[in-house]
Amino acid sequence: EAGVVQSPRYKIIEKKQPVAFWCNPISGHNTLYWYRQNLGQGPELLIRYENEEAVDDSQLPKDRFSAERLKGVDSTLKIQPAELGDSAVYLCASSPWGGSFVQETQYFGPGTRLLVL
Amino acid sequence: GNSVTQMEGPVTLSEEAFLTINCTYTATGYPSLFWYVQYPGEGLQLLLKATKADDKGSNKGFEATYRKETTSFHLEKGSVQVSDSAVYFCALNLDSGAGSYQLTFGKGTKLSVIP
C-alpha cells in the first residue's frame, strides 16, 4: 500500500513569493491534515479536511495561507506571500475516519521543507 | 488546553543501553496516547499507542504504559540499537472542542545511539 505522497520535498523561495505544496493521501482515507513543524518542535495542525470539507481551520493563518481538497482526494496548501517566519517543514497526514475516533492513527508523509530567504 | 511535555534531548546512548524517554500530559478528558518516531529524512510514523488507562503499547521492543494517576506515558526499550537513532514524539488525541479529535505533540526527543 502506497503511503502519503508529498511534493516537492524541498523548496527555497524569496520572501513575498508564492509557494504551493501538494499531498496525495492514502487511498480510501477520508480525512486529510496539514501540519507545520518548526525546527525543534512537534507538528502543529493547520487544517483538517473530512472529504472535501475543511472542518477545522482555526489555526490556519488565513491572511496568507489557503488550502483546497478537490474531489476529496489530493490537497494543495498555498502560501501567498511567503514570509521569513514561514520557513518550516509542512507535513500532510491522512486517516481513515479522522475526527470520529480518539484512538485513530494518522499516517504522515515525508513533508516539504520550505526555506524562505 | 491540552499539552504534552517530553524530556529534552538530545539523548546519546551506547548500543544495548536501556532507554527511557519521559512524557507527561495535561488534558481535560480521557485522551488516547501515542509515540511517533521520525527517522532521518522520513515522515513521522506510529511507533505505539494506548487508548485507555493501564494499557501498554508495544512495538519493535519499545513499550509505554498509560498511567492515568501520574498522567504519563514514558517510552522504554531494554536494549537500543544504532538503527533506533531518530526523533521520538509523544502525542495525545482528544476532543478539540470543535466536535472532533486533534493530535497534540510534544517537542520531540532526539536519540542518538553510538556503536
Give a structural overview.
The complex is a heterodimer of chains A (117) and B (115). In chain A, the strands form two sheets. In chain A, strands 2, 4, 5, 6, 9, 10 and 11 form a seven-stranded mixed sheet that branches. In chain A, strands 1-3-8-7 form a four-stranded antiparallel sheet, with no helix packed on it. By secondary structure, chain A is mainly beta. Chain A has strands at 5-7, 10-13, 19-24, 31-37, 44-50, 53-56, 65-68, 75-79, 88-95, 107-108, 112-116. Chain B has 115 residues and is mainly beta. Chain B is built from no helices and twelve strands. In chain B, a hairpin with a 5-residue loop joins strand 10 (86-95) and strand 11 (101-105). The radius of gyration of chain B is 14 Å and the shape is globular. The mean pLDDT of chain B is 92. Classes of the chains: A mainly beta (117), B mainly beta (115). Chain A binds chain B through residues 3-4, 40-45, 48, 55-56, 58, 91, 93, 98-111, and chain B through 4, 30-32, 34, 36, 41-46, 49, 51, 89, 91, 93-96, 98-103, 105-108.
Percent range of helical residues of chain A: under 10%
Oligomer: heterodimer
Q: Please state the overall shape of chain B, judged from the principal axes of the Cα atoms.
A: globular
- C-alpha-based Rg of chain B, rounded: 14 Å
Could you tell me the number of beta strands of chain A?
A: 11
Total number of strands of chain B: 12
Biggest interface pair, residues each? A-B, 28 and 30 residues
Largest sheet of chain A: 7 strands, mixed
Please state roughly what percent of the residues of chain B sit in beta strands, choosing from under 5%, 5-15%, 15-25%, 25-35%, 35-45% or over 45%.
over 45%
Structural class of chain A: mainly beta
> In terms of structural class, how would the helical and strand content of chain B be classed?
mainly beta
Number of helices, where a helix is a run of at least 4 consecutive DSSP H or I residues of chain A: 0
Distance N to C terminus of chain B: 41 Å
> Termini distance of chain A?
37 Å
Task: Classify the beta-strand content of chain A into a percent band.
Answer: over 45%
